[in-house]
Amino acid sequence: MAQVLQIQAQLITSPIPSSVVDPNLIAVKLIGACADHANVRQAALIFAHLASPNIFAHNATLKALAQNSHWFHAIQFFNHQVSSPNAPNPDEFTFTSVLKACAGLAHVVNGQKIHAMVTKQGFESNLFVRNSLIDMYFKAGYLLIARHLFDEMFVRDVVSWNTLVSGYCLCGCADDARWVFDRMREKNFVSWSTLISGYARMGRLEDARRLFDEMPERNVVCWNAMIAGYAQNEKYSDAIEVFRMMQQFGGVVPNDVTLVSVLPACAHLGALDLGKWIDGFISWRGMALGLFLGNALADMYAKCGCITEARRVFNKMEERDVISWSIIICGLAMYGHADEAFGCFYEMLDCGVKPNDVVFMGLLTACTHAGLVEKGLNCFNTMDKEYGVSPKVEHYGCVVDLLSRAGELDKAEDMISSMPMKPNVIIWGALLGGCRIYRDSGRGQRVVQHILELDSDHSGSYVYLANVYSSMGRLDDAAKCRLRMRENGVLKTPGCSWIEVDNTVYEFFMGDLSHPESNKIYSMIRELMWKMKLAGYKPKTDLVVHSIDEEEKEDALSIHSEKLAIAFGLISTSEGTTIRVVKNLRICNDCHDAAKIISGIVKREIIVRDRSRFHHFKDGVCSCSDYW
């Protein structure tokens, strides 16, 4: 882009006579280069300097706007062109660009007006224009009109058929899309990848994978469609598996779209080694760290607990948006680094970036994990007043959580009563968490009733009630509660932990025996339990609600998924290696105590990311200071 600007500066200071080279010819080249670098403003400035822009200059500028999703401005530019007496009449390329803008906005009224102009000027039978019309009507939700326009075509190309497949997929009609796909005489990579993406968008991953496996050959777009499909449906292990297949057997080189799809899977599973490999690959290939790729890479590091590396990536990015800043703020929040999170927030404001709702979620979360009640309340109260960001139910949930964790249960309940919207299960669940911590069983039972009215299958409420009844000696009521869960088909979300060893992510559930190294894992568990008890560990058997003896309760606690993952990490890595575990639920009190003691026994750092924050265990101490 710097070279483009240098050329433009030269042409301004030393213009080439129009008798030698038509200024429109140079302008079209420069506008195209600006469009390729997403610098639409510069493209518009180049166009504005033309004394008599011809149709090519108009089309280049309109294409630059549409290509970079400046759809509203593209329609404005077109309207100005057709209303200006000196402007050239639109041609087929003009119409394809402006119809793309109408499709992007799903603006059928403007689309119909342009359709009328297309018909009036005799372009309706033009293949490119007809394909654009079909695309526009599909994206505006007018399936019958789109199909009618397709059926009327005397000449169709593969783009026409692909537009039909894409349109049906976009409208959720995957079976219609497949019907069209199966009748295509000619298919290209776009045909296959469009249907794969369509299946994935509707959650039909088996159909997507079956189609993917049927492909005679694949390009990077096809691989990207399958990887993105898994990632978008939270099948992160499958996304990584396909990415590895692509590297081993695909014969294609991953591009930035591939990496933007894989990095969130690494972030979710804590696959730091693979994430680091991707970071190195980006550097080795000399890939530009654009906004999407930079954000994905920074987010991966932040969610894997490497906030310093996340900040390094952030600092390397040439362009940053509010999402970039929110990644760093939320990453700091997950570690409870409230002061640093607010420091980053003020730095963002100094850069002229307006905060959004995600930024404030990060700040409130930071206050929650650090126990900064007054600071959190002040942040919440200034959201709308100073920054124009209206609090959503998630922000209220954060404040209720903040107050509940700090023992301010009355204030938390008052906050719920004052909410402008109806509290949901998450809001009441935050208060229930406070009741659990501070053993306010009376309030807790009342809160459970609110939760069950909203969600009769909320397993956490049944488990809480069973625990309360057990602690009160009401064992029959506890048993009835568990029986009611079974009768209603309520299933508790199983705890699941992931750990990456030698570039492979392993998954563990409570009592898991599926791993080939299970014997060694359980042997390590027994050894750790013995050493932990010598170090003063006392299993929190009150967490086990089943009516079994103390020894059986201790055994049940010892096989929680995070303990299995830690044990596997210890037998599979060299001494001194940091153990990194990701847990899908909140780490339980017993596993938290155990991880602290284990870190002291084995002289290793253990980092556990549960569903809300990081716990960094070192020398028998946790970074959360036992406040979580």
Set out the fold topology:
Blueprint (H helix, E strand, L loop, with lengths): L1 H12 L9 H14 L3 H9 L6 H13 L3 H13 L8 H14 L2 H13 L6 H13 L3 H9 L6 H13 L3 H9 L6 H13 L3 H10 L5 H13 L3 H15 L5 H14 L2 H14 L5 H13 L3 H10 L5 H13 L3 H13 L6 H14 L2 H15 L5 H13 L3 H9 L7 H13 L3 H14 L4 H13 L3 H13 L8 E6 L2 E6 L8 H17 L15 H9 L2 H12 L6 E5 L5 H14 L3 E4 L4 E5 L2 E2 L6
Parallel strand pairs: 3-4
Antiparallel strand pairs: 1-2, 1-3, 4-5, 5-6
Helix pairs in contact: 2-3, 2-4, 3-4, 4-5, 4-6, 5-6, 6-7, 6-8, 7-8, 8-9, 8-10, 9-10, 10-11, 10-12, 11-12, 12-13, 12-14, 13-14, 14-15, 14-16, 15-16, 16-17, 16-18, 18-19, 18-20, 19-20, 20-21, 20-22, 21-22, 22-23, 22-24, 23-24, 24-25, 24-26, 25-26, 26-27, 27-28, 28-29, 30-32
Description:
There is one protein chain. The protein is mainly alpha-helical and 628 residues long. It has 33 helices and six strands. The protein has helices at residues 2-13, 23-36, 40-48, 55-67, 71-83, 92-105, 108-120, 127-139, 143-151, 158-170, 174-182, 189-201, 205-214, 220-232, 236-250, 256-269, 272-285, 291-303, 307-316, 322-334, 338-350, 357-370, 373-387, 393-405, 409-417, 425-437, 441-454, 459-471, 475-487, 518-534, 550-558, 561-572, 589-602; strands at residues 496-501, 504-509, 579-583, 606-609, 614-618, 621-622. A six-stranded mixed sheet has the order 2-1-3-4-5-6, with helices on both faces. Helix 16 (256-269) runs antiparallel to helix 17 and helix 24 (393-405) runs antiparallel to helix 25. It is elongated, with a radius of gyration of 30 Å. The two termini are 48 Å apart.
